Amino acid sequence: MKQLIQATVAILVVSSLLFYAADALSAGGGKSGKDTLTIFNWGEYIDPDLLKQFEKETGIHVIYETFDSNEAMMTKIQQGGTAYDIAVPSEYMIEKMKEENLLIPLDKTKIPNFKNIDPYFLDLPFDDDNKYSVPYFWGTVGIVYNPKLVGNLDFSSWEDLWDPSLKRKVFLVDGAREVIGMGLNSLGYSLNSLDDQELRKATDKLITLAPNVKAIIGDEITPLMVNNEATVALTWSGQAADMLSENEDLDFAVPEEGSNLWFDNMVIPKTSKNIDGAHAFINFMLKAESGAKNADYVGYSTPNIAAMKLMDKEVVSDKRFYPSEEQRKTLEVYKNLGPDYLGKYNELFLEFKMSIR
Fold first, then answer.
1. Which residues contact 330 (CB under 8 A, 6 or more apart)?
2. Terminal Cα distance for the chain, rounded
């Protein structure tokens, strides 16, 4: 009996050790260090061949994990279970991560290819002097549409969405900042407005759009537009580029009144256990060849001017996805509204949703 008990105890001990070892490895924490780099990025947002190339050039093994929202990304980094060395948040989330002391300042002496970034995309309000972040991809919010199905409308103005001919034909992305921002821009207001009267007027105007709204959805809009089952949609430029690549009949416009200019950025979280490797990866991704290869694969707009010189001229000259500096003057980067006004935007968005029948 004693031997049986000893054997049982031994099995339990070994099982426990194996369980905790497996748990640590699955969290990415078991392989962190100078020979490993753990990257946290959006899904399908990098050319896999570049990860293999980085591993071959540096000898650093890459663990690649993905997230589907900025909030999910930040929560996991806050929890600290995984030692992420690189993350790719959007601009407003960088402000929040700075406030929570979740980021490590960059050592630009270790990122000589930083010079390849277009100065236009540097030193923006969400990260002065790019102390913590390096631009990865950028884009706009606009309208994708099928010219064959919308008559003479070209969506050079937000007002076109209110045209009576579009009754139950307009799809909107499920985002408070995007939709309330559209309402604000249509009235000539800033999409970062903290003016209660402007927000009220924008919401009231959006409610008049309700008869034209077919649905408020997410990624499902892509196959609907590609298969000509949808006519017009508010969406991000990158998503629109994917649609246009599959259906040449579609077009994309950023209304003249103004819209959002968004950025996703590479940062080094405080969880990093390979800070030198993280800097090496950022520098690798900023090489002209890497930037061009990544942009060709992902389809989003690159801020890397050295990379653009290696890309198809027809792509980088397309002002729908690479708007000129003159066009960009009407675009705004989302600012961190603070918890009170973020809640207000969400409340107004919900009010608008409830007006759609």
1. 256, 257, 258, 259
2. 72
140-150: average pLDDT: 96
pLDDT digits (tens, 9 = 90+) for 58-78: 999 999 999 988 888 999 999
37 closest CA partner among 49, 51, 24: 51
Q: Is 140 in contact with 330 (CB distance < 8 Å)?
A: no
Strands 331-332 and 251-253: unpaired
Distance separating alpha carbons of residues 353 and 180, to the nearest angstrom:
11
| CA-wise closest residue to 292 among 315, 261, 321 | 315
**Residue pointed to by tokens 């947002």:** 45
- On the question of pLDDT at 185 being above 70, the answer is yes
* Beta-carbon contacts of residue 263 (< 8 Å; ≥ 6 apart): 90, 91, 121, 124, 126, 135, 136, 137, 138, 303, 333
Which pairs with CB-CB distance under 8 Å and at least 24 residues apart come from 155-158?
155/232, 155/253, 155/255, 156/253, 156/255, 156/256, 157/255, 157/256, 157/257, 158/182, 158/185, 158/186, 158/255, 158/257
Instruction: Name the token pair of 214.
Output: 């077919």
Q: Residue range 129-140: average pLDDT? A: 97
The SS3 of residue 67 is strand
Name the helix (H) or strand (E) containing 232.
strand 232-236
| Whether 334 contacts 264, CB under 8 Å | no
CB distance 237 to 323 below 8 Å: no
